[in-house]
Fold this protein.
Amino acid sequence: MNKWRRFLLTVAGLLAGLAAGAQTGTTITGSIQAGGRVREYRLYVPPSYQPGRAAPLLFNLHGYGSTNLSQERSGDFRAIADTAGFLVVHPNGTIDPGTSYLYWNAWNQGGGPDDVAFLSALIDTLAQRYTLDPDRLYSAGYSNGGFMSYELACHLGGRIAAVASVCGSMENGRPGACRPTHPTPVLEIHGTGDTNVTYNGGSWFVSIPTVLNYWVQANGCNPTPTVTPVPDIDPTDNSTAEHSVWRGNRVGAVVEHFRIINGGHVWPGGPPSSTDVVNRDISASAEVWRFLRRYRLSRLALGAAPAEAAPGLRVYPNPATGAAVVTLSAGPGLRPAAVRACDALGRPVPVVATAGPAGTVQVDVRPWPAGVYGLRVADGRWVRLVK
């Protein structure tokens, strides 16, 4: 089948699903105490969710002056979640001092709420009540919520695998203050006709090319993207789109961008707007989930470690389900003192190792929490261990 026809059928199907899909899951409202404040959220639980089976979680963050309810409707993931089986949480920001508008403190300057800490605490709260997959926690946001998603990529990388921003950017100075702990897949969807968060930057935020360039460099991607025109499936929407992809990262952490030519400060594929051009050639919700769903935190965090054992290096049992020790085999001359280990964030973990039979080393894994680890031997070879 012609690739464009395949693309058109896929997009058309996703759009039809979004338009026709009456949500069949459950919406739960709740609140938590964080930073001395009561913080509210709405959680959408799809009908396919089963306690005990780990499910991905997606933050869907509203824009400045908006609310979680408005974002739930305008940047709607619920019909997709029904079939893909992920939970969607819609938190509320706090009132911007001197205004009546909710906002995200995506720059965390001059006081104000620590929204990174709040969203981390919200993960903890939800994880106590639902079976979340810690390997598949994502954030997407609109406008100010897109700024906040980048802030999570910068400062909550130990939990968030990948992010997407629709009509968002990064504040001046934030790229320099960003501290990602792993290669972070990033998707930016932005209109060139956006008059709120302008494509070429503003007095307090950087341009979209600057945002993309930062993440391309941070991820070690090839600086030359593949650029593909998006089929103009709705010639009446007064806009077109092109899709750019920067690849080359060793763990596949790509950077993607949908440039909506003439598009406004709106969610593509979302509700009509009386003031802005709404592109209908893509569904931002469908593209965001298509992008995010591929990524696992453990794979990204252990970017320096190969997915499989290096030649001659083996650890067993792996996964180490219920095992007190694992056996590491690396060839002749392996000594217990030469074995090192790190967790999924690259942080060293203590190793208690003893000599095993036939030149192997046995590593006590009982003190380690469940998770993904890297074991390294003296010559630099790595192997991944799942406990």
Remarks:
- Confidence is low (pLDDT under 50) at residues 1-21, 304-308.
